[in-house]
What we know:
By secondary structure, this protein is α/β, with parallel strands linked by helices. The chain contains three helices and five strands, in the order βαβααβββ. It has one domain (10-81): Rossmann fold (3-Layer(aba) Sandwich), CATH 3.40.50. A hairpin with a 4-residue loop joins strand 3 (68-71) and strand 4 (76-79). The longest helix has 11 residues, at 28-38. The radius of gyration is 13 Å and the shape is globular. It starts with 9 loop residues before the first strand and ends with a strand.
Amino acid sequence: MAARKNAGVLALFDVDGTLTAPRKVVTPEMLQFMKQLREHVTVGVVGGSDLVKISEQLGKSVTTDYDYCFSENGLVAHKNGELIGTQVSP
């Protein structure tokens, strides 16, 4: 990926109710918008669901389509397709 114009900017988006209608699949228009946005800034998605459910909504390659993917309310973190952290909820 080419250098981004605003490399210091991180745009985080909630999945349900923001990128998608609650529990629904993302629209092609939203996918295109997110792809274009990623050309300019670092983009991450955050969801309360597990990675399986987020993948059903945003696509199987969600962990590589976005710079960051935080599932299970942020307890599981991926960066550029790599698992970078997990935390157990008390």
